[in-house]
Input
Amino acid sequence: MRFFVIFTLVLLWFLPLEYRDLIRPDEGRYAEIAREIWINHNWITPTLNGLHYFEKPPLQYWATSLFFHIFEPAAWTARLWPAITGFSGILLTLWLGKQLQLKLISYFAALIQISTILYVGSGHFNTLDMSLCFFLQLTLFGYIKHYYFPQHIKSSAWIIGIGIAGAFLSKGLIAIILPGTVFIIDSIWHQEKNFWKISTQSRIWGIAFLLSLPWCIAVSIKNPGFAYFFFIHEHFDRFTTPSHHREGPIYYFIPILLIGFLPWTFIWIQSLKNYLTKIKQSINKNKIFTQSTKHSFDLKKHTRLQRIFIIWSITIFIFFSVSHSKLPSYILPIFPTMAWLLAFSLERYPHFHWRKSIIASLVFWITVLIFAPLIKNYISNEWSRELYKNYYIYLYSSLLCMIIGCFILLASMFEKNLSFSSQEKLKFWYWPILLWSLGIQFAFQGYQAFSPQQSIKILVNQVLQQEKFKKEFKFYSVNTYDQTLDFYINRTTTLVNIEDEMEFGCKQKPSLCIKSIKEWETLWLNEKNNAYAILPTKLYEEYYKTLPMQLLGKNQRHAIIKRFNNIN
Output
């Protein structure tokens, strides 16, 4: 049974990667940066649409470029690095359990981790947060390994150093700030001194700098403006000012956490209510958990392990809550530790202990099922309403999986006389977790229904049936920049009246950017050769009678045109 569950979860994790078209902005952006690295063989200076792009470090771009080289540029290869790092994070959880002889608890934690909405979603969208999550998890687990096995300080230092370097090359300075803050708090709390010995720290930072500094030095030499933009504008300005237009209230991540941790949210809330009480009861018994294995850690190490997970979760949650830049996936790094904390409770208590939580979950999913058809009434855009109707089948399939999983749990939970061993407890959750994982995949893969609105691929494919974009002709992006365009047309464009995230790159290469639509109109009228342009549909309706153009294709968002006066 265990092999079947693992095999099915692996299939559910990797098979759907190609199902959805890449969507804007993140998936198209990061796929295109990797494509340009692959085409130009420039591994030092990342570019987006031919413009310098220093908002994020290059590790994921490098990995994706390598996948493009080995396989081909495609949606599944663009998403392969988040998928690999996400699944590797689950394997890390199992590895830590093996190291600490907490195998059963680590199985619970891994199953929770692989079946939460935000973790699964982040592993199947081409963003940088899963890569960061994996390397931060590696850093934390290296620190825990150091505490449990101080005699293995060299291997622990390597794990921590690689984790810091990987996290830095994934998303920057938070690779140092977040784990550093957690380790300081934990060390003060537990009067930890060995970790801060000069020999230990020099080994950790030597490894981290050896792996991360070469790129920083190389890109700074080649691009003198990199250091200020990357370290000041993209880190301190992003955190302390609303310059990136991603503000949110202080409670922004509370609903994200509650929704993102589904379908485990209600169970996790119940475990929080009695967590401190049960720890005190365990202290009185001089044990914190009873395992089916013969090994039992002493009380201090078990208590500290959970404290580290709590400190980690709270610190990261507070850090991003006070930041002026907020996106839902920023709190992803706390999901592995939350899974561990819940796993401790699942292993300890009998299955029927969670009956109320499962009933609450069941009521929640049934309520969503009842009200799901009404959501379209609150969508003002007619096109979005039509696309949402196409999403129904995926949404209903997802909700049915969630509901059936809850029913299976309840059917067993009402048999009060059953007494499960730890191994049997784990088996008790297999089918519900498989159904929940399948339900989450239905919900996410069903987002393909919104592809006409969120991706340019369908429109581009329509155009390609009649027109092959010739590289020698200019292609303008007028008053719009759909980040999926460059990837699907396999070329860059000249930006017209676009700045935002491209402002720095346009300053470095002004020839690739046109500041105003008026300037583009002049160029378009005087263009000697054929040229292409993509522009908002409303703008096309203003210009199609006054400028020479042939419509190649359009939808409610975009129109793709070609000059008609010199058509080959």
About this structure: The mean pLDDT is 89.
